[in-house]
Amino acid sequence: MAGDLPAAGDLLDAALALATEVGEPYVTARARLAAGLLATERAEHERALGLLAAARAEFAALDMPVWRDRAGKALQALGERQADPH
């Protein structure tokens, strides 16, 4: 699976760029959430924090509490991982 992470990251970056260009807020937020989760798996903590926080804010603006909470839980889990050095 680790070999697939760079390719997945490239695809998600492309999807995020396209969704942003087209101006589709829900798709943009979903792409940010997915890219944030992948960045978490790749131990790219700062990138993950930014993407997940942006996704949470976008879902809140779209009045989509289930998706907002999903991004929030991922942010919370990431914060717990950063606090635990083990």
Tell me what you see in this structure.
Helix 1 runs antiparallel to helix 2 (about 25-40). The two termini are about 20 Å apart. The protein is mainly alpha-helical and about 90 residues long. It has helices at about 5-20, 25-40, 45-60, 65-85. The longest helix has 19 residues, at about 65-85.
Whole-number average pLDDT?
84
Strand content: under 5%
Class based on secondary structure composition and strand pairing:
mainly alpha
Distance between the termini: 22 Å
- Please describe the biggest sheet, giving its number of strands, its sense, and whether it closes into a barrel: none
| Number of E-state strands | 0
The SSE order reads HHHH
Q: Quick recap of the structure?
A:
The two termini are 22 Å apart.
Helices and strands, with pairings:
Elements: H1 5-22, H2 25-41, H3 45-61, H4 65-83
Helix pairs in contact: 1-2, 2-3, 2-4, 3-4
Which descriptors would you attach to this protein?
single chain, 0% strand, 86 residues, mainly alpha, 4 helices
